Structure prediction request, 197 residues.
Amino acid sequence: MMNTILLPILMLFSLNWTKPADETRAFKILHKGEVIGELRSVKSKDGDKTTYQNTTNIQTRIVTEVRVKFDIQAVYIGKLLESSKVDITLNGKPYASTATKRLGNGYQFFKDGKLKSSVKGDIIYSSARMMFDEPKGILNAYSEEKGAFHNIETAVANTYEKLNSRGRKTIYRYQDKALEQVEMDLGLTEIEMVAKE
Prediction:
């Protein structure tokens, strides 16, 4: 008798405590139509904490073999960025590392372990979120890598242009609120990212 009462109650509690499934997106990275890498994005929620994890692996040949890996993690508590970390490796060796940490009413930005700048105010939208959250009504995105804001303009419906401090443009195209394609101006060359089916 006790089991027939306890079992439904335990099942009800377990449903309320189950962590929601992570959202995962994958993109192939193309240069002049040739696949040179992959970006994998994961959005995890745990209560009011949301973590965005983007891992990019690129392998190509310019003059010599080049392998680049970008790991970006952005952690939000509620609607505000709490912290971010970026690690970049080139040919398997550390190339650059940045971190942003919330402190009081602002943030501190570190590059290779050294404090480089401070950001005043709240950060509600950063580049890592663009893989999952269409920037409707958003005017800028914080760059976890550079520690600065990039302007966002709506080009046409569901298409946004993010302009960095060097004037280089990245175009994001969404369909049904999901990111489908990215075109990046890297200066000397351009790459494209396309969502995998």
In short: The longest strand covers residues 34-46.
